[in-house]
From TrEMBL:
Pfam families: T6SS_Tle1-like_cat. This is Uncharacterized conserved protein. It comes from the Bacteria. It comes from Salmonella enterica subsp. arizonae. The lineage of its organism: Bacteria, Pseudomonadati, Pseudomonadota, Gammaproteobacteria, Enterobacterales. Residues 2-88 form the T6SS Phospholipase effector Tle1-like catalytic domain.
């Protein structure tokens, strides 16, 4: 085999012994090792801003070149619609029952969400994309609560940090160009990219960034270093990468109802929840955790 190109490898195998949890490095019968000789050249593009608990990275960099590009899992491998509206919970929805005359802003769940909203922009996985949307603390109030033993009216207040914006899939076209050019560098023969194909076209102001990403890929293929993206470039890229990690429940018709999401099961409902501190867990090909 001349060339094997990989896009953000996520094995994510869960079994009965680990409670169907795909977060560990045990891939059961799935063999993901790529020993020398499996191909003349292997190249791996990984997602720099992917951090979901269930999307641990299976790295190959102990044996093969691996380049981390900005974005989430499907920003690198493709799969997003041309345009998507994100309405996401960036904190796990929480609920509190209080007396009816207590202001929403005085509840513990609201104040906790405010503190979380102040912390979230400092996480690397979120920082580039937050300026392109609206992040805020939202609440729901349910007054259908039985009064206490003294007859005092009560209410239930739910709160969460939400994030909303519209984002395109244009960055995945850049990732595709990088793999295309790296594969050509490794000796694979392709037809030229059709410049008239709208499905492959991305905004012209990404041209220089795309060229830089291609240079990074070619350099890594040869075992060389390459200039990383500047803060300004990352801010531009942030408009085009998706926020894959969130606390939305699987039942997405509940997405606008914070109260409905509170009691959802963490394991089976919040399948896109972030890993600890919004930082991705990485394993090598043998399943050993990497720092």
């Amino acid at each position: 085999m001349q060339f094997l190109g990989l896009f953000d490898t996520v094995t994510a195998v869960g079994g009965m012994l680990d409670g169907l949890d795909p977060h560990d490095g045990n891939n059961l019968a799935v063999k993901i090792g790529l020993p020398p000789g499996v191909a003349k050249q292997v190249f791996h593009l990984t997602a720099m801003h992917e951090c979901r608990y269930n999307f641990c990275l299976n790295s190959v960099k102990e044996q093969w070149p691996e380049l981390s590009l900005p974005g989430a899992h499907a920003d690198i491998g493709g799969g997003y619609n041309p345009q998507e509206e994100e309405y996401l919970f960036l904190s796990r929805p929480a609920v509190e029952t209080v007396l009816a005359d207590v202001p929403t802003e005085a509840t513990g769940v609201y104040q906790k969400a405010v503190l979380q909203a102040e912390t979230l922009p400092h996480y690397f996985a979120l920082a580039p994309m937050l300026p392109s949307g609206v992040m805020k603390v939202e609440t729901n109030t349910d007054e259908r609560v039985s009064p206490d033993h003294l007859g005092n009216a009560k209410k239930r207040v739910a709160a969460a940090v939400t994030f909303q914006r519209i984002v395109s899939n244009d960055w995945s076209k850049v990732a595709l160009r990088v793999m295309y050019e790296v594969a050509k560098e490794a000796g694979v023969v392709f037809d030229a990219i059709d410049s008239d194909n709208l499905k492959l076209r991305y905004p012209t102001h990404l041209n220089q960034i795309c060229e830089k990403a291609i240079k990074q890929g070619k350099a890594f293929l040869s075992g060389l270093e390459a200039p990383t993206f500047t803060s300004e470039e990352l801010n531009t890229i942030g408009k085009y990468i998706h926020c894959s990690a969130n606390w939305n429940a699987v039942d997405y018709h509940l997405k606008n109802n914070i109260s409905s999401a509170v009691s959802s099961s963490k394991t089976f409902s919040f399948v896109n929840r972030p890993d600890e501190n919004w930082t991705r867990t990485v394993y090598d090909m043998a399943g050993n955790p990497q720092k």
